[in-house]
Amino acid sequence: MHAMQYELTLPADYDMEIIRRRVASKGHLLDEWDGLGFKAYLMRERGVHGSPVNQYAPFYLWNTVTGMNSFLWGGPFQGIVNDFGRPSVRQWSGLAYEEGGAADSPARVAVLRRQRVPDGVRLTDVMADAARESERLAGEGGVVLSAAAVDASRWEVVHFSLWEHDAPRADGEVYEVLHMSDPGRARLPQTV
């Protein structure tokens, strides 16, 4: 399992309806993408949920590297590059994935929290803690799913959760979910 995200930070006066219309017209393109666990089409709007920026920042969990690579190197990602330039694409190795009690509900918001892995800790303990945090989040009321992943080049753990309501009980950046493509979500491994 592989996690991926790119962020397009837009001008403060950018009309975010452009992003909403873009996702409404193109979001379905990944609804059946081979190798994709899920893509959450995420947006932050300046002043909403405490966001200091306007941003389009989709988050992905991939079942296969082949699916991820075909998306990046020959698929719809070229449309982002053509319209916004080539963003830096962050990638993490998946550590844990859990379905929440609201798994069958549509996601309204997402929460993403990055956490530095401190020096001197046992890496197996970091993985176990991340898995426990995913399980804990999945047990919260209104959670659709939760996941954790690690970037070993930056020694950073990312915690990601989707919620069916606008009042998530998790720390981190809060995003509006515009669309969800999840063709391989049922095949995502619960723990890596």
Give structural notes.
- The chain has 192 residues and is of the alpha+beta class.
- The protein has one domain: Alpha-Beta Plaits.
- Helix content is 23%, strand content 36%.
- It contains 4 helices and 10 strands; from the N terminus they run E-E-H-E-E-E-H-H-E-E-H-E-E-E.
- The chain has helices spanning 17-26, 65-74, 77-84, 123-138, and strands spanning 2-6, 8-10, 36-44, 54-56, 59-62, 89-99, 109-116, 143-151, 156-163, 173-181.
- It has an 8-stranded antiparallel barrel.
- The relative contact order is 0.25.
- The model has no long low-confidence stretch (mean pLDDT 95).
CATH architecture: 2-Layer Sandwich
Helix content: 10-25%
Q: Largest beta sheet: what is the strand line-up?
A: 1-5-3-10-7-9-8-6
Low-confidence stretches: none
Q: Care to count the β-strands?
A: 10
Number of self-contained structural domains: 1
Mean pLDDT score: 95
| C-alpha-based Rg, rounded | 16 Å
Major sheet characteristics: 8 strands, antiparallel, barrel
Helical/strand content category: alpha+beta
**Cα shape:** globular
Assign the CATH class: Alpha Beta
Question: Number of helical runs?
Answer: 4
Q: Write down the secondary-structure element order.
A: EEHEEEHHEEHEEE
Determine the CATH topology: Alpha-Beta Plaits
Strand content: 35-45%
Distance between the termini: 8 Å
